[in-house]
Specification:
37% helix; Nuclear Transport Factor 2, Chain: A; alpha+beta; five-stranded antiparallel beta sheet; elongated; 27% strand
Length: 218
């Protein structure tokens, strides 16, 4: 065997040795490899992602400070009626506000009488009757509500009656015209900003789901 053949065999052996070493270090890649499994989080970090049992009721604390008189009253309402939702109540109050306000502006209170206490209905009806006696015709257009916030809440454990006061900030256009068509109140070309605090009441746990407007103010 000549020197050339021996040299080739030596080189081939070296090449095979290097290939085997590279495969052992780098490994082989076949198709799509699975991503590496992430290392487990330290126990101190895991705790930050666990759900804390018995925490504050966000349906309440989203609207009133935790631990306040209002929060305790709302919690008592939920105990008396577990299905009660503060967020859903405010959504309903928003719709009731627009409906009752526009019925009052247009002198059509009879359509919303079931949603008011007898005292509130009589008070508003007196205003509507006074307008009619003066021969006034009111036109009104509701522009929208800018604010709906929970203002106060009370719960009577003896009667199970809950009262919730809501602050509204709205915009509307209204004008009252006399028999001659002259504007005597309001402005048909100007948006009026209005703020109200309305109090709604209901016996918690009763079969009747409707709240009634029991007081109005600013």
């Amino acid at each position: 065997m000549n020197n050339n053949v021996i040299s080739l065999l030596v080189l081939a052996g070296i090449a095979i040795f290097l290939i085997l070493r590279l495969k052992s270090v780098l490994g082989t890649r076949e198709g799509f490899e699975k991503p590496p499994v992430p290392a487990p989080l330290p126990s101190s970090r895991k705790g930050k992602f666990e759900v804390i049992e018995g925490g504050p009721d966000l349906d309440i604390t989203d609207h009133v400070p935790e631990g306040s008189d209002e929060a305790r009253a709302l919690a008592a309402m939920k105990q008396a009626e577990p299905s009660f939702s503060v967020t859903e109540f405010l959504s309903g109050a928003r719709g009731a506000y627009e409906m009752i306000l526009m019925a009052f502006e247009k002198g059509e209170l009879a359509s919303v009488q079931p949603f008011m206490s007898a005292e509130v209905y009589e008070t508003l009806e007196e205003v509507v009757a006074a307008r009619k006696a003066r021969g006034l015709t009111v036109t009104a257009e509701f522009m929208g509500i800018r604010e709906v916030t929970l203002h106060d809440a009370e719960f009577d454990r003896k009667t199970s009656e809950g009262e919730v006061s809501v602050r509204f900030a709205s915009e509307l256009i209204s004008a009252a015209r006399n028999a001659a068509g002259e504007v005597v109140e309001g402005n048909p070309n100007e948006v009026r900003r209005q703020r109200d605090v309305w109090t709604f009441a209901r016996k918690m746990g009763s079969d009747d789901p409707n709240w009634q407007l029991v007081a109005t103010g600013e």
